[in-house]
Amino acid sequence: MMNQYETVFIVTPVLSEEQMKETVKKFSGYLAENGGDIVHENNWGLRKLAYPIQKKSTGFYHLIEFKSGGELINRLEVEFRRDERIIRFLTVRLDKFAVEYNLKRRKLASNEPTREKKEE
Known about the structure:
By secondary structure, this protein is of the alpha+beta class.
């Protein structure tokens, strides 16, 4: 059975923009090659960490929302652990309410008009 998951991982900040994109591409590709169906990806960019990890105070955050069978999650997390560029990761299974919430949030974000300042 296909469940919907969301994984957020933090890439070390010492990489160049190109190396960071390559790392993200590696994990997106891994999911696609192993039967995962990517629903949505979001690059949150460079953010300050709540506490230092491996003596780093910032990291590149990236979110991938995908559908897959549960057996893929363990293999994905092993890949995260093997890659020294990943300093933290978290994968959660989304229930139907979380899936609906994410859909609504994306729809609102895409429909949001750009606000122009009006001179009064």
